[in-house]
TrEMBL record:
InterPro entries: Ald_DH/histidinol_DH, Ald_DH_C, Ald_DH_N, Aldehyde_DH_dom, ALDH-related_metabolic_enz
Job description of the protein: Part of the sulfo-TAL (or sulfo-SFT) pathway, a D-sulfoquinovose degradation pathway that produces sulfolactate (SL). Catalyzes the oxidation of 3-sulfolactaldehyde (SLA) to sulfolactate (SL).
Full protein name: 3-sulfolactaldehyde dehydrogenase
Species this chain originates from: Salimicrobium jeotgali
Pfam families xref list: Aldedh (PF00171)
């Protein structure tokens, strides 16, 4: 499969690459150029993918662990061997610069390699039934078995690695998968699906169905053959999905509004560098991007001065230019939304210290101060290149303000004090605390997820496998053979 300009790219439906009369245009947000089209799948297509996956899964007498390992290792190598091609696909269809895309490709290969490694470690344990009186003659264990058909929905901001985080654990667990990638960025997912077909994945065990969520997503969420659902996306969409999932397994990685705390004893140079990178990489379209920075009062003036200076150094421009730091947002519509939120905050008294000017889908990296606490940009997820900076009197105030949103994915704190770091670890209402780093830190093996409106369950390959498998207990009642 190639992703050259205006190519008609097919979708993978129950083991076959198919086209449809109606298509969706894949747009390069940098210049609004149509780089490819993909099929606009129907509800019937989605239903067929799900039912075919169920039929294929049910027909497999066994799918040995060694075969799943072989497939995942093959795909990991395939991604590495074709790294530049994958990177150019990511950069073409998304907001990422070519260097950011290359980083995502490397992570994706690693995610799949981890999935292969974790496949061999899907193990159960013996159970001591004789811990309860009367069960001295019983022995047994539990083991993991696949749930069946997994439904997966991915967003636009990491169009390859987040797909790898869905497909890798699902296949490691022995499941069939039906994936609906973001309509803005389907090409990377389809390119990865091609790698799985070349690896010899049994036909029908993977479908990548392209189309608007409002048209085909409901079928994916509601179909009774879908036994587990893994979703990464917006909080509103996630809440609507959970209303329909019932007793099925669910993993939800949703929105965020990530804080970073900078204390007086911090290394300010490190803090500034981490917040600059964490706030503005991928044009701020990252669920763990730095959105709010709380700086202890004595350090606030210098931190702000240096943060503004470093932010102004960032180069915004052509995604394929090697020295570009910041690309466009995913669409001009999203850029206009970010611009509107900035103007709303400014009307309420906020000060724009730098940036914030929009040109098409581009928004200059912006730093805001004196932001009203009830403004949209303070309470909701910006998902754009904007960071709010505020002075605080002490650590407790910083933690209290960090917690004063409906999200809780990750947070960062910069301090040399162990006790202060542990106070933050224990009191920040988030799924992860990064000490002497920004909120924007993740490796693909760690448990990843949040509290409150930031989601349900955890990603990270090992932890996703646990959600996408069932545990079955086996007990043997023994009697004397004599």
């Amino acid at each position: 499969m190639k992703t050259t300009r205006t190519e008609e790219v097919k979708m993978l439906l129950a083991g076959e690459w198919v086209q449809r009369e109606e298509t969706i245009s894949v747009i390069n947000p940098q210049n609004n150029e149509c780089i490819a089209t993909v099929p606009r799948a129907s509800k019937e297509d989605m239903k067929y993918a799900i039912e075919s996956a169920h039929k294929k899964f049910s027909s497999l007498e066994s799918w040995p662990v060694h075969e799943r390992i072989r497939i995942l290792k093959y795909v990991s190598r395939y991604v590495s061997d074709n790294a530049e091609s994958f990177a150019r696909t990511i950069a073409s269809e998304s907001s990422k610069t070519i260097n950011e895309a290359r980083g995502e490709v490397a992570r994706s290969a690693q995610t799949l390699e981890i999935a292969a490694e974790e496949t061999r470690r899907i193990q159960g344990e013996t159970v001591n039934f004789d811990q309860v009186e009367g069960n001295e003659n019983k022995v047994g264990y539990y083991y993991h078995f696949p749930v069946g058909v997994v439904g997966a929905i991915t967003p636009f901001n990491d169009p390859l690695n987040l797909v790898a985080h869905k497909l890798g654990p699902a296949i490691a667990g022995g499941n069939a998968v039906v994936l609906k990638p973001a309509s803005e960025t389907p090409l990377s997912a389809l390119k990865l699906a091609e790698a799985f077909t070349e690896a010899g994945l049994p036909e029908g065990m993977l479908s990548v169905v392209t189309g608007p969520g409002r048209e085909i997503g409901e079928e994916l969420v509601n179909h009774p053959y879908i036994k587990a659902l893994s979703f990464t996306g917006g909080t509103d969409a996630g809440k609507k999905i959970t209303e329909k999932t019932g007793t099925r397994h669910v993993n939800m990685e949703l929105g965020s509004n990530s804080p970073v705390i900078v204390l007086n004893d911090a290394d300010l140079k490190d803090a500034v560098a981490a917040c600059t990178d964490g706030g503005f990489s991928a044009a701020g379209q990252n669920c763990i991007s730095v959105q709010r920075v709380y700086v202890e009062q004595d350090s606030y003036p210098l931190f702000l001065e240096e943060f503004i200076k470093e932010t102004k150094k960032l180069k915004m421009g052509d995604k394929f230019t090697e020295d570009t730091d910041v690309g466009p947002l995913i669409s001009e519509k999203e850029a206009k939304r970010v611009e509107q939120w900035i103007h709303e905050a400014k009307a309420g008294g906020a000060r724009i210290e730098t940036g914030g000017v929009r040109s098409g889908a581009y928004v200059e990296p912006a730093i805001l101060t004196n932001v009203p606490p009830d403004s949209t940009i303070a309470k909701e997820e910006i998902f754009g290149p904007v960071v709010l900076v505020e002075p605080v009197q002490n650590l407790k105030e910083a933690v209290d303000k960090s917690n004063d949103v409906e999200y809780g994915l990750q947070a960062g704190i910069f301090t040399r004090g162990v006790n202060r770091a542990f106070y933050a670890v224990q009191n920040l209402q988030v799924g992860g605390v990064m000490v002497n780093d920004s909120s924007d830190f993740r490796i693909d093996a760690m448990p990843f997820g949040g509290t409150k409106d930031s989601g349900i369950g955890r990603e990270g390959v090992k932890f996703a496998i646990d959600t996408l498998t069932e545990k079955k207990v086996v007990s043997f009642k023994l009697s004397s053979p004599f």
